[in-house]
Amino acid sequence: MSQTAFHLTLDLRSYSAETSSHQHDYHQLVLPVSGQLDMTVGHRSGLVSSQQAAVVVAGEDHGFSGSPDNCFLVADIPDLLAPELERLPAFITLNPALNQYVCFLFQQMQQQHTTISSQRQMLLLLIQLLHEQYGEKTSIDRRIATARDYLDNNFSQAISIAQLATVASISPRQLSELFRRQLGMTPQQYLIEKRMQQAWQLLETDSLSVQQVAERVGYSSLAAFSDRFRKHFDIAPSHFRRSGK
């Protein structure tokens, strides 16, 4: 994994008029500020302009050619931190609310006192808004939705399959089968994913120690947390503290 892929980054970039094509091991959002950018993402072509943004999934070939005096907000996002971006279309039309939020992001980037942590928090909110607006709409069984909501709200606690099945009013066996079928992972895998995503955000944006982060996401053992985090993201949680975060 490259150093670039360790952290969320958000900055302003301009592109040349010459066509360029490459790929990278992290997701990327290209958000319009001024000018236009002709892009190809995989086999799709589109224009990043005042009302349209581009989503480039990690590992996907993409090329671009910019108009004169262009400027874009570009976010580089670790693939494991925002897996929901893989389910978004390559080109998305920004509705008035999203377009206004992109303008807000640009204004905040112009402020000298804006911290990297606050930029990343705003970017995480943008990812959530994009997913809610353009993510795949799937019909989830009410019992599975209840179980998922319970995991979302109680991920810092120890939760057994039997306990979760009781909450969802379903047998443990049915819960495991339906959960995997509808969400693509077991309840335990979902719980780990939720804990790891929350841990990453806390390490990125907060001053808590690694031990405190571990406790916040349900691990009483620092060693167990560090081992799980390293296996999940291929870096140790202590990396964030060594780099001054």
Please characterize this protein's 3D structure.
The chain is α+β, with helices and mostly antiparallel strands and about 240 residues long. The chain folds into two domains: about 5-135, Jelly Rolls; about 140-240, Homeodomain-like (Arc Repressor Mutant, subunit A). It has nine helices and nine strands. A five-stranded antiparallel β-sheet has the order 1-8-3-6-9, with helices on one face. α3 (about 140-155) crosses α4 (about 160-170), α3 runs parallel beside α6 (about 185-205) and α4 packs across α5 (about 170-185).
In short:
The protein is 45% helix and 20% strand.
Q: Report the span from N to C terminus.
A: 19 Å
Q: Strand arrangement, largest sheet? A: 1-8-3-6-9
Structural category is: alpha+beta
Counted beta strands: 9
Radius of gyration: 20 Å
The coarse overall form would be globular
Order of helices and strands: EEEEEEEEEHHHHHHHHH
What is the residue-mean pLDDT, rounded to a whole number?
85
The number of distinct structural domains comes to: 2
Proportion of residues in helical segments: 40-55%
The CATH homologous superfamily name of the largest domain equals Regulatory protein AraC
**What's the oligomerization state?**
single chain
CATH class of the largest domain: Mainly Beta
Count of DSSP H/I helices = 9
Poorly predicted tracts of residues: 1-5
